[in-house]
Here is the input.
Amino acid sequence: MKQVKPIIIVGAGPVGLTAAMLLQNRKIPFTLYEAEPELPDDLRASTFHPPTLDMLETLGVAAPLVAQGLVSPTWQVRIHPSGERAVFDLSVISDATSHPYRLQCEQSKLCRIMLDMLIAEGADIRMGVKVEGVEQDDHGVRIALRDSKNEATTDEADFLIAADGARSIVRSALGFPFKGKTYPETTILATTHFPFDEHLEGLSNVNYVWKEGGTFSLLRLPDLWRCSLYPDGEESIEDALEPESIERKLQEIVQVEGGHKVDQIRPYRIHMRIVDDYRSGRVLLAGDAAHLNSPSGGMGMNGGIHDAFELVNTLEEVLNGSALDGLDRYTRRRRPIAEQEILTQADRNRARMQERDPVKRRESLQALQRTVADPDAAREHLLRSSMIAGLRKAAEIA
Here is the structure.
């Protein structure tokens, strides 16, 4: 491999740190810049799909992550309060993955594992340094930086990997169109240590649930439950965030004398957006910087990690002498999969759970139950919902 100036990575989330570990393993020099001085512990993604765990295993990360998470061999769609449900068992695809389950674990734990490993190996990680500008020419990329002491500096490299999230400074600076839409509803994420599994028969660790006139989801982590709630009817988001409203919604799930103890509450809007091209010259976007989707199905973070693997594999070939336009393969392989398999599937998952017509809900549940009962259909459904089918399609693209 020719000697190159360090590659710049912007963003120390799961995507940027995955790219960093892949470069480190290939002895490709890089510098990673993260705007925040410390890794955040806030509520973000928490579901790892089987192929993502297979990939992370190649980096020595899967085992310590699994040790901190909750193995979830099933997931389900159900009706509340009757408990009618369709339960998908990932053992059906055990021949296609070394990890036939979803792992429920906060993404912050993955980031800490990766960052510690990178620092132990002497990686060049610059925390608390913000990117303020990006420009490039045929020979390289230059960025303007500002550190925690408000001192301005610059850096340059042959290539830049932008993994700086939904509000990507790099994407904005270079004018990547980010087309799509924002969904009308606001999701309210509430966490609690209440043991829903001891009160709702047959609950999985991942549950998407219809209730009368609305919906909610229950996702279990090792020491708490994440409850995704929504305003009722014409209720404003401000009213829905009031403790009385949160308590009313949780009481609808399980009645508890004395009320539920809620630890954190966070509202957020959901988007479906994607850039036209993951590459502009020597700058490559990955993860939320390139695409945003509904969290229904837990595919956003996973898709970003898959981006990082494809990106680094392609970038390594260029660094070894392939033509620069070989980087276009990264877009060819990842963008259609994100658009057709991630955004579309997540949009369909969201639409199913937002359905309010009881007749259509029952038809949907019955269709899912028929899928579960048919071994071939269940396998196909799980290969797709677990993101394995999309990765196989991507690998076939030249």
